[in-house]
Amino acid sequence: MALLKNAYLNEKPEKEILKQRLKEQEDLLFVNQNKIKDNKLPVVVLVEGWGTAGKGTLIGNVINNIDPRFYKVATFDMPTDLEKRKPFLCRYFEALPEAGKFRFYNTGWMNEIVMSRLDGTMSDSLYEKRIASIRRFERQLTDNGYLVLKFFMHISEEEQKKRIDALKEHIDTKWRVNEGDIWQNKHYKSCAKIFEKYLEDTDTSSAPWYIVDAKSEKWTELQVLERMNEGIDIALQNHSLAVPLLQNTFPLVKMPKLADIPLDGKELSDEEYKEKLDKLQDRLSELHNRLYRKRVPLIIAYEGWDAAGKGGNIKRIAEALDPRGYEVHPIASPEPHEKSRHYLWRFWTRLPKDGHVAIFDRTWYGRVMVERIEGFCSENDWKRAYNEINEFEKELDDWGAVIIKFWVQIDKDTQLERFTDRQNTPEKQWKITEEDWRNREKWDVYEDAINEMIAKTSTKFAPWHILESVDKKYARIKALQIVIEELEKKLK
User: Is residue 402 a contact partner of residue 409, using CB atoms and an 8 Å limit?
Assistant: First the structure.
């Protein structure tokens, strides 16, 4: 399919008809913005295209028909050195709109990829990896209720040259022409080949490309508005439909069920604990320095039963780290601005820079545990999440991160003993809530959900590790040993 070659399938209407249609579409978008708000539909509009094709002008014309409270424009140049220290998709994920609002991307992930291809800094293998990431990213957005509209503004080689020359003639407009535009025009055919390849590789049924004939301003705006209004109408009709579940494609590590994990005999004396703790923390401190020097990111994710000892476990790892190089993220119920975005958004925005450490006390797995069991999301949402989470962690692995996931395991009797101790000890009472007792009544339901979660998300690149924590000292030492072992493997 040659998308650029077939760009001019729609014929530009006569001036008066164009004017009439444009007014109709502008009025319709003004009406549709309220439907978007009422239905909490988030809309992503990606505008890409040739240099001097008028991307900024188009966005300016379109947003004039939208209440300024319901849109934002994000402009992306090539990533800065700081942005390069985060995963490729991070800055695009961070810019996602809240439900019921528009976010216009003035170039984005396409521009970053094709520019890297054109300047020769991106290998074929990295290109294929990036394309896979983009297809997953866009599919996850549409699966989670986003409308993704992608426009490529197309002009001919001759038209681009004419615009460059016209802009360069005047002192007030020549600044709008950069070296990249001039280079692009001189190598138009090579650029077109790269653009065409990218467009074909990322043209999907859920997030198709619209090729816009950008030769004249009003005609460009009409094409985009018609596609936007049509897309909004279809998205509102499909808003409540279930999304097909996808089969996991990542290799899994076979894991035991929680009930089959022996907890007896997993304990340490105070003397053994102290001796091992000091040695392991010293070793982890050494590795943290190497981690920073080699720019390797580390992500440690903790899940476990209430009162299993996650906090104390995290504390013993954090004690060994340079405080300038790590952050602990306690994850509670999402804030309103987090709840109105993709459920992984609040984790994407908490990722560390390379060379740094992020420790999550509770994680993205809430989607398939508490949100599933308490009915905070639909059945389709949590069933789809296993694959989405595996894809998220694959992005982290491709970035070069060490991902360590701990499930902190205790039995029901141990939990009761610790709950009672907390309730009867004044300085510990803040640790126990009515919700903890309610959750305890659902132990068996939670256990089934946890077993399914571990079985479906223990991938070879991000396996689960079980910490037997009836003796908290034993669990702390085991966690330190696992972190050290994983870092040593990576830092070789």
Answer: no
How many whole angstroms separate alpha carbon 195 and alpha carbon 220? 19
Are 214 and 305 in the same domain? no
Q: What secondary structure letter does DSSP report for 351?
A: P
How far separated are the first and last CA of the chain, in Å rounded? 45
Q: Residue 70 has what DSSP assignment? A: G
Q: Is the domain of 223 the same as that of 291?
A: no
Rounded mean pLDDT, 414-434:
88
Nearest C-alpha neighbor of 114 from the set 87, 94, 134: 134
Percent of the chain that is helix, strand, coil (3-state, to 5): 55, 15, 30
pTM score: 0.94
d(CA 280, CA 484): 8
Q: 225 and 62 in contact (C-beta within 8 Å)?
A: yes
Asked whether residue 334 falls in the same domain as residue 211, the answer is no
Which domain covers residue 108, as residue numbers? 15-238
For the residues 135-142, what does the mean pLDDT come to? 98
**54 domain residue, yes or no:** yes
Please give the C-alpha separations between residue 47 and each of 1, 108, 139, 148, 274, in angstroms, as whole numbers. 21, 8, 18, 11, 59
Q: Within a domain: residue 246?
A: no
18 SS3 class? helix
147-154, strands of its sheet edge to edge: 71-75, 102-106, 43-49, 147-154, 209-213
Tell me if 220 sits within 8 A of 58, measured CB to CB.
yes
Element housing 363 (H / E): none
CATH number at residue 147: 3.40.50.300
Compute the distance between CA of residue 46 and CA of residue 128 in angstroms, rounded to an integer.
21
Q: Check if the beta carbon of residue 151 is closer than 8 Å to that of residue 48.
A: yes
**What's the gap between Cα 485 and its chain centre?**
28
Whether residue 196 is found in the same domain as residue 273: no
Classify residue 235 by burial, with Cβ atoms within 10 Å: 0-12, 13-18, 19+. Answer: buried
Q: What pLDDT, on the 0 to 100 scale, is given for residue 336? A: 95
Domain membership flag for residue 420 = yes
What phi, psi does 430 have (nearest 5°)? -65, -20
CA angle 339, 340, 346 (to 5 degrees): 55
User: Same domain for 37 and 157?
Assistant: yes
Instruction: Give dist(CA 250, CA 159) in Å, integer.
Output: 46
Of the listed ranges 167-171, 320-324, 400-404, the one predicted with least confidence: 167-171
Give the 3-state secondary structure of residue 20.
helix
